[in-house]
Amino acid sequence: MKKIIAAFDGLKYSDSTEKYALEIAGQMKAHLVGVFLDDFTYTSYKIYDLVVKKAASEKTIREYSKKDRQARDLAAARFELSCRKAGIEFTIHRDKNIAIQDLLHESIFADLLIIDSKETLTHYDETLPTRFVRDILADAQCPVLVVPQKYLPVKKIIFLYDGDPSAVHAIKMFSYTLPLQQDTSTEVVAAKGYYGDLHVPDNRLMKEFMRRHFPSSIFSILKGDPQTEIVNHLKAEKQSSLVVLGAYRRGTVSRWFKESLADTLLKELKMPLFVAHNKQ
Hints:
The protein is of the alpha/beta class. The chain is built from nine helices and ten strands.
């Protein structure tokens, strides 16, 4: 039985994370862990505004703190109820230390981490990708599924492939981790620049590999600037597609799967992204 962890901010509960986590855990018959990041440094209120601007008393601060505890308790209870209704085997972790450190540590012992693309663990809205999600993608010790705010059942898997080992590793991790439903189609997308041929890198080996894992896959070769063509190709897809990519590390990790492309996909697409890379 695999173990999935789903990350939640108890003060801003993600309905989308819950729905994707329940759907995937049900398909995999996996154990689902709701990781509630009750970071002691993070509150729904700003101490500065209460103390300086409103001259708040200690009593007022205690009342706000109590409301936060209640909100977090309700979020955990909501997750528990949803799991019980869905018949999912589950556990709840209430991590109370620094959120990023706790979640990265949890990822060591998980097969998959699911997180909302807009998760911040701060008071502020941020442009995508948020700093919190970027840090998770860079340092997580398991594959990460970043989900949009609207849940849609996945009908197609798109594998981004540039010939780099990290791209193949991501496809392997996806095949080991997530089940593929019978009605789910698969596509391998490669960009060859302006002057490349119409074969994917390592054409014979790659097609032999895909026949063993996803035998019905079609191959699409894009001509032109890789980043531009990939983004445009994916924008034309339905939002019920899921994109698999294999590089999200600080610095250059591939010829064209650089951090800027992954950031662009998180910003431009409203579909789930499965990200996995070698940690070596």
